[in-house]
Structures are given as structure tokens and as C-alpha cells.
Amino acid sequence: MSVEPARSARPLSVPAPRSSTGPTPPAAPSAGVAAALPPPPGGRAAWLAWSVGVSVYVLAVIHRTSLGVAGLDAADRFAIGASALSTFSILQVLVYAAMQIPVGLLVDRFGPRRVLLLGVLLLSLGQLAFAFSSSFAPALASRAVLGCGDAMTFISVLRIAARWFPAAKNPFVAQLTGLAGMGGNLVTTVVLADALHREGWTPTFTAIALLGVAVFALVALFLREAPAPVPVPGPLPVGPGPVASRPGVGRQVRQAWSEPGTRLGLWVHFTTQFPGNAFGLLWGLPYLVEAQGMSRTGAGGLLTLLVLANMSFGFLFGRVLSRTAKARMPIVLTVVGATALGWALVLAWPGGHPPAWLLVGIILVMGSNGPASLVGLDYARARNPVERLGTASGIVNMGGFIGTMITLFGIGVILDVLTPAGTDTYSAGAFRWAFCWLYVPLAAGTLMILRLRRKVAERERDATA
Questions:
Q1: Which residue, 277, 327, 435, 462, is the most exposed by fewest CB within 10 angstroms?
Q2: What pLDDT was estimated at residue 464?
Q3: Per-residue CA distances from 159 to 2, 380, 390 (Å)
Q4: Nearest Cα to 149, choosing from 131, 187, 123, 179?
Q5: How many whole angstroms separate alpha carbon 193 and alpha carbon 281?
């Protein structure tokens, strides 16, 4: 199980505070009746709350991946080369990763509903500024704002799911959240690419920005971030009673980090996510076109296959993990091993031009990377109390994006070193050596997973002794 039920079923000495999750606050308990938070109920109300929250995440993924189909247009519009173009993706990932702990603290302090509303606002403003940018610097700043808004979505949706669904169902709901996000990626590759070709730069990106108005209204009017308190019969305690105090920001982060399950979750997220993320975000299309000689249409088809494989593995892993938590580490180690073996076969193929079936195979294997990374969030949910769940999730969610930045940068540097000055394209040999860089973060992350796995097992034995 991933999350323990909130320990708020004890009678409170004061009426329940006004909820920020809807226009009507819950009624105060009458005399002789105390307020209590119910256990997560699941059911239709839970799925409704999740659906409203996940609509923001789908919107964020559309914004996040919108540049992926507009790279050539952006290079022409801003008169920039490939290295400057890659700065858009690296900066966006950097901002996203840097914001994870602050966003987790915001979710724990103010609730996911307010954070989601702020995220939609930043996404829309950033994309609108990008739509009207005509030079590199303002466009870069707008992508940074967009990355900040994007960072506020996923953790908030996970926190909503933790309050609405029974703990055993949380792994499945987390995978469904990732699957829904991949649906946003499909919207980008299919709908946005066509709109950009027909309507042009400013109308297309303006339309995406204006989608935020509808999503903002949906969240503001209909999202309840947690079940309402219910009256529990029994006498109210006499006297003012103790007032719960929140730990300081530094202490909150230290408490989450001191839990071995949080650190294990971070390294699971780091090690499993970055290969597929770096390939899909930036280097996949150049590798397939320049190193493997594929057409842009064929390369786009393989990248679409990557998205579909991601969705399929997300559904599969979610079903398995909702039945047994013992499947977590076998899934992680299998995905890491399959990724390492798959890339070894691709990179070792004579001449650096593997057959089509092998390229399809490594694409399918990398489709498991994103869903496997969500297992890291399961470890954090299982080992942290609900009041610091956002902080712990933020720490874990940094991992894969830090790994992605290291990989994007490392591959780029090696390609530049191995490519003669004045050459516009990278050779198959250069890509072959550059993609060997994948094994550096892969090896480091695997060693940390094995080390922390023992610590978590020891903690479990001590707790049951």
C-alpha cells in the first residue's frame, strides 16, 4: 500500500475549519458531536475529483510538449541554431526540477486546489507570452514561466488521489494519471502539429493558452480536494485542547529526506525515467533521422509508438501494483535491466545501423520507463504521513528530471566534441558514442537503488520486531 489513512479520525476540540475545496463549507458539528475526517471513500465522488484535477495535468503536458512539434518553426522564427534550440528544453526541465520541493511544500501548506489554480495561471501566461515572442530571450523566459506552472500539477493530483482513494488503489490511480498525461502528448503530436502547419505560430499557441481559461473555471467551480468532515457521535472534550503546529519549512524537508523510503523513491525515479524522457524530449528525432536515416514521418511514427507504449505499461503496472506492493522492486529492476540491455544491443550493432525491429524494440522498452518511475512515488507515499506527502513527492519527482538534464547535457557535449566544426548534422558514429553516456547515470542510480533497498528493508524489520 502506498499511503496510510490520515490520522484525523480522533475527535477534534474545535469545529472543522472552512474548506477551500468548494463554495460551500461543511456545517459545524452540533453539541455533543465532534468533527472527523473520514477514511478515503473512493467511488464516483473520488473519480470526479481526480478527473477535474487530472485535466490540469493533461493541459500541462500539452504545454510541456508543444515545442517538440515546433522545433523547426522555432529555429526559423527566432533565427537560432540547434544548441540554442535545445536550451528551451533544458531550461524548462531545470525549472520543473527546481520547483518540486517548493511545490510540495505549497501543497502541504495550502492544499492542491490552490496550487493547481496557480499552475493553470502560470501555464497560460507563459504560453501566451511564447505565442507573441519574436526573439529568443523573451521566448526563453516564457518557457521558464511555463515550466514553473507545469511543476505544480502532477504532485497536486497525487495529493488529491491520496485523500480520495483507499491506499491500495493509489498506485493504480497514479499510473492512470501518467497515462492521462500521455494522452496530452498525443494531442500535441497529432492535433497541435497539424494546427501549427495550417494556422501558424501565434494563433496556434494563443489557442493553447486560452484552453487554460476553461480548465481554471473547472477547477475553481468543481474541485473538492478532500472528502468533507463528517460528524462523529460522542462528547466534545472540555477545554481549548492542544493546537496542532506545523513544522518549519526546513524541518519539513529534513523529515521527508530522513525517511529512507523517500530517498529510495528519488533514485528509482531518477534511474527509470531519464532514458525515455531524454529520447522523447529532444534527442530521439535527431537520432532516428540523422543517425538512422529515417524520414521525419517514420521517426514521428516511432515517437508516437513511444507514447502508446508508455500508456500501455502505465495501465499494466498500475493493475499489478494495486494488487501487491511486493511487485515494486521487481518492476524497477526489470525495467532498468531491459533498458540497459536494449541500448547495449542497439549501440553494439555493427556499423551503428541496427535493423528496424531492434529500433522498435528499444522504443517499446523505453515506453516502460515513465510508468516504472512512478513506483518511486509509491515508496514515498508508503513511508511518509499524509501531512508531508507533498514534500516527499516533490523530492522524489525531482529525480527523473535531474537525470534527464544530466543526459540531455552529456549527449549534447559528446556530440559537439565528436562533430567537426561547421558540420550541420551529426554522424551515426557520433550518436553511437554519445548515447553511451546513458550508462553513467544508469549505473549510478542502480547502485543507489540497491543500497537504499537494504536500508528500507531494515527499517521494515525494525518496525515489525
A1: 462
A2: 63
A3: 12, 12, 7
A4: 123
A5: 15
Domain extents in the chain: 41-226, 251-453
> Residue 381's pLDDT is what?
85
65 vs 97: CA distance, rounded Å: 16
Q: For residue 99, what pLDDT is reported?
A: 92
Which of 390, 385, 384 is CA-nearest to residue 105?
390
Tell how far CA 215 is from the center of its chain. Answer: 19
3-state DSSP call for residue 35?
strand
Work out the end-to-end distance of the chain between its first and last CA atoms, rounded to an integer number of angstroms: 20
d(CA 227, CA 48): 12
Do 148 and 122 form a contact (C-beta atoms < 8 A)? Answer: yes
Low-confidence ranges of the chain (pLDDT < 50): 1-35, 236-244
Q: Matching CATH topology for 41-226 and 251-453?
A: yes
Q: Indicate the helix (H) or strand (E) that contains 393.
A: helix 389-418
CB of 434 closer than 8 Å to CB of 294: no
Q: Class assignment of domain 41-226?
A: mainly alpha
Between CA 261 and CA 152, with CA 43 as vertex, the angle to 5 degrees is 50
Rounded to whole angstroms, the Cα distance separating 104 from 412 reads 31
Q: What DSSP assignment string belongs to 74-133?
A: HHHHHT--HHHHHHHHHHHHHHHHHTHHHHHHHHHHH-HHHHHHHHHHHHHHHHHHHHH-
Q: Quick check: 39 and 99 in contact, CB under 8 A?
A: no
